[in-house]
Amino acid sequence: MGLIGLSSRERVLTALAHREPDCVPIDCGGMRSSGITAVAYARLKDYLGLSQGEIRVFDVRQQLAIIEQPVLERFEADVLPLDPDQLGSWQPYRLPDGRMAYTLASCEFEEAADGALYWREGGRRIAKRPDGGLYFDYTDFPLADATTVADLEAFDFGGFTTAQIEALRVTGERLYRQTDKAIMGRFSGSIYERGQKLRGFERFMLDLAEGGQFLQTLLEKMTEAHLSTLKVYLEAVGGFINLIQMSDDLGTQTGLQISPAMYRRWIKPYHKRIYGYVRDHYPDVHVFLHCCGAIAPLLPDLIDAGVQVLNPVQTAARGMDSRYLKREFGKDLTFWGGGVESQTTLPYGTPEQIADQVRERMEVFGPGGGYVFTPIHNIQADVPPENIVAVYEAARRFRCYR
């Protein structure tokens, strides 16, 4: 049964304003950490008897599928993504389980003798899916051998192309005018993770420990590139999107990846510049941060840096108890996620256990608004389709305030 009352967009905006809408909004695939991997999505479509459409893998590294309209309607999703990788052309692609699907035509793949599949870009192997593996791991770090400021000055830090910006503008306007959904614009704006991807994890951690002019220049160059792209991006889509998705994973399961002092010295000032640009120039666009792990000690800093919406709300990580988060930070943050444990309950629980956890999370996070329901992270390949259905059926059952 469909909802009556607020539109999806009104429902999300009310929750973001920390007021109770008619029902807790639901996100299914609105961004790259609230989606479904292609293997699980294909099985879900079979389970639901949906034979039309195609399996399209838009996020190659995580193997995420575009979630199609019949599934969005079935799960009463309130959010749509505006993601450049969903707007390109497609080529045939074989999923890890052998099923045929499609992925980005711009991607080049190479099968190795050992069964591994390499993802190539610009003539280089940039990521690898091992034989029998499900996902791609980055193998190429373009600034790994950089040693001087001159090396950084010579590097192209990239950004959206003109064609991507125009495609985003056209699609953003269409989604805004032709649907009643809230629209999530993907941007990323990563500093910490981008440093890891450019330098390699170990090298960038050493950079942070050593400090100095090289690190300062690297951080400045990344930030300048983000801000230059952000200005053009928001000029194109700022009137159509309701949230802008940033990303920077700072936690592990048991603690922070770096100390609060190191975050405040080297990362926070750049976060503040990027998020602050959105807050200052597009106050109706909410700053959404995807940040995994046990990050509770950094939440005051992230709020100060300009974060308004937190995802994935990894409640199984140390110090991330749902009641504590809502009590201490619920006035400043909208929690987007935390709806069911993606590492335990979702893949291994019964439908009844899933429903119990969904109800409990709705009861904790929902009061007073400031909550959008979605599982803690992407639904992985080993999650049975009946459990996926159980999540969203429970969310529909327990979402309404009255």
Notes on the protein architecture:
It is a single chain. Strand 13, helix 11 and strand 14 form a beta-alpha-beta unit. Helices cover 40% and strands 15% of the residues. It contains 14 helices and 15 strands. It has 402 residues and is α/β, with parallel strands linked by helices. Helix 9 runs parallel beside helix 10. The mean pLDDT is 97.
Number of helices: 14
Shape: globular
Task: State the strand order across the main sheet.
Answer: 3-10-11-12-13-14-15
- Radius of gyration over all CA atoms, rounded: 21 Å
Q: How many individual β-strands? A: 15
In angstroms, what separates the terminal alpha carbons?
16 Å
Overall pLDDT score = 97
Beta-sheet strand percentage?
A: 15-25%
Q: Which stretches are poorly predicted, pLDDT < 50 over at least 5 residues? A: none
Structural class: alpha/beta
Largest sheet: 7 strands, parallel
Order of helices and strands: HHEEHEEEEEEEHHEHHHEHEHEHEHHEH
> Helicity, in percent?
40-55%
Offer a quick outline of the entry.
By secondary structure, this protein is of the alpha/beta class. The protein has 14 helices and 15 strands.
Keywords:
15 strands, 14 helices, four-stranded mixed β-sheet, alpha/beta, seven-stranded parallel β-sheet, 402 residues, 15% strand
Secondary structure: elements and pairs:
Elements: H1 8-16, H2 38-48, E1 56-59, E2 64-65, H3 69-74, E3 79-82, E4 90-94, E5 100-104, E6 108-111, E7 117-121, E8 124-129, E9 137-138, H4 149-153, H5 162-178, E10 182-188, H6 192-199, H7 201-210, H8 213-237, E11 243-247, H9 260-281, E12 286-290, H10 299-305, E13 309-311, H11 322-329, E14 334-336, H12 345-348, H13 351-365, E15 371-372, H14 385-398
Parallel strand pairs: 1-5, 3-10, 10-11, 11-12, 12-13, 13-14, 14-15
Antiparallel strand pairs: 1-2, 4-5, 6-7, 7-8, 8-9
Helix pairs in contact: 2-14, 5-8, 6-7, 8-9, 9-10, 13-14
